[in-house]
User: Fold this.
Amino acid sequence: MDGIIRVFIHGLDSSSQGTKGSYFRKKCPDMLIGDYRGTLNERMDKLSKELTDKNNLIIVGSSYGGLMATIFACLNESRVRRLILLAPAISFTDFSAYCKKTLQIPVIIYHGNQDVVVLPEPTREAAGLIFRDLDYRLVVDDHNLHVIFSKIDWDNLLEIRR
Assistant:
């Protein structure tokens, strides 16, 4: 084991059994892939409990899961190695309650230019305020990133050594 703990957080209406969760389960069998239901606070409580005493985290968050990943990183920046956010719903929340300063960790965002669920421009603007080390990639795709998801270099982003 390389000491890195990889985590996937699904979106609002998805689950660990969704397309992305199933993909990661095969790609990275040791990845932590939970199910989150309820209010944002209930989801965050569960995530916080699951990640208690865990460090060196690479967190992938999809849509609402991207919001959760960002909140977690704001509250636990020293424990997070990298965030990979897929059409993250970060423009849906005021981060001043969570982030007292700009996050320094590396963050990559993939966002479809045809996303009508989480609009790309407000997301890009929010990301620019929250993250200092940001790689924002606007791609030709929809909210679910059907076209590019499986083409992303996951081995590199998740630091999987084969």
Notes: Residues 54 and 128 are 27 Å apart (CA to CA). The beta strands are 5-9, 32-33, 57-62, 80-86, 103-112, 131-139. The chain has a mean pLDDT of 95.
